[in-house]
């Protein structure tokens, strides 16, 4: 019989790629999200009735029991970059939400739990994002000692919220900010590789414990901004913004919905976002990992003056 897999946060950037792969395995996929209308757009990724959106809010604990009943695997992809708007606090979503999800899965007798965390998850971090990611991991591991936990670096892909955001900014703003001088290092990972890692954990129970997953190369934030400009054929000044100035801006701007930077993100940027080497990674999962250079220019080309085919028309 087909596996039943509940993907909490399945309509998001990572979720869309995970769901596409799970549908190909023939699994019955439930999407547990708050906005069921958005999730319905994913139904064509599977056969009729194969992908079933369900209303779940892990911050409130609503809809979890129904989403878990009879499931073989639960994948929790829910995470937020900033509280506010329709998002509740980091604590409610990433710490207590993960705990509620694991408790509901356990109560329903679900045998396998996969949790999405983030590189830098650390109970002692200055950042509440990182603290609550660590608390979410601990809550899941307390109930599911064999859970697979993934800590990715920045995730990139055609519909990412990182390179697309900075390319869009460069199209209208004269400068891109280099917070803390842009020295923070990252190991960006392709969304397809993240989805492959998660699907491997679904099919292979020996994938257990924490995996720190980054792509094949590390780059400074400044290098990533330079690369964004080159790939999108745009020019903008790269403006160093010292950490205290960025923190001040983040404190005020961060209160606005969709803010470009928050104080918590400035705190995160003070620490390199690289695998520590203490945990297995992509290599141990048998995934080679695509580079930024191989993937990103194709999807940032739409930002060039005149659009994707602008250069063909001499724009
Ligand atoms: N993207 C990255 O670069 C990156 C890097 C490191 C770690 N991660 C982690 O990877 C995971 C997936 O990230 P993503 O980029 O795919 O995020 P995303 O695009 O923002 O998607 C988040 C998903 O969670 C759902 N959601 C949000 N709040 C919810 C709640 N209270 N209850 C139920 N569902 C909720 C959203 O749908 P609704 O709004 O309809 O509920 C959406 O389906 C997150 O845990 C994130 O922290 C991402």
UniProtKB/TrEMBL annotation:
Residues 5-214 form the NAD-dependent epimerase/dehydratase domain. InterPro entries: ComplexI_NDUFA9_subunit (IPR051207), Epimerase_deHydtase (IPR001509), NAD(P)-bd_dom_sf (IPR036291). GO terms for molecular function: protein-containing complex binding. PANTHER family: NADH DEHYDROGENASE [UBIQUINONE] 1 ALPHA SUBCOMPLEX SUBUNIT 9, MITOCHONDRIAL, NADH-UBIQUINONE OXIDOREDUCTASE 39 KDA SUBUNIT-RELATED. This is Complex I NDUFA9 subunit family protein. It comes from Elstera cyanobacteriorum. The lineage of its organism: Bacteria, Pseudomonadati, Pseudomonadota, Alphaproteobacteria, Rhodospirillales.
């Amino acid at each position: 019989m087909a596996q039943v897999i509940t993907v909490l946060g399945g309509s998001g950037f990572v979720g869309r790629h995970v769901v596409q792969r799970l549908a190909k395995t023939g699994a019955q996929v439930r999407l547990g999200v708050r906005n069921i209308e958005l999730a319905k757009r994913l139904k064509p990724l599977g056969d009729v009735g194969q992908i079933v959106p369900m209303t779940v809010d892990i911050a409130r604990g609503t809809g979890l029991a129904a989403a878990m009943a009879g499931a073989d695997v639960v994948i929790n992809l829910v995470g937020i970059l900033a509280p506010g708007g329709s998002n509740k606090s980091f604590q409610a979503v990433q710490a207590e939400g993960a705990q509620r999800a694991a408790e509901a899965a356990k109560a329903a007798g679900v045998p396998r739990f996969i949790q999405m965390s983030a590189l830098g998850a650390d109970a002692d971090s200055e950042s509440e994002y990182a603290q609550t990611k660590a608390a979410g991991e601990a809550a899941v591991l307390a109930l599911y000692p064999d859970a697979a936990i993934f800590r990715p670096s920045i995730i990139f892909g055609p519909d990412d919220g990182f390179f697309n955001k900075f390319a869009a900014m460069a199209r209208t703003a004269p400068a891109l900010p280099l917070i803390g001088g842009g020295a923070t290092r990252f190991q960006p990972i392709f969304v397809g590789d993240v989805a492959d890692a998660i699907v491997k954990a679904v099919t292979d129970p020996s994938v257990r414990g924490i995996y720190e997953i980054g792509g094949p190369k590390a780059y400074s934030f400044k290098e990533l901004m330079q690369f964004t400009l080159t790939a999108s054929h745009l020019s903008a000044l790269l403006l160093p913004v010292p950490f205290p100035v960025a923190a001040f801006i983040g404190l005020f701007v961060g209160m606005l919905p969709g803010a470009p930077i928050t104080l918590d993100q400035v705190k995160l940027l003070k620490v390199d976002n690289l695998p520590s080497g203490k945990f297995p990674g992509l290599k141990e999962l048998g995934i080679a990992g695509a580079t930024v250079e191989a993937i990103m220019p194709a999807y940032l080309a739409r930002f060039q003056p005149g659009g994707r085919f602008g250069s063909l028309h001499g724009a």
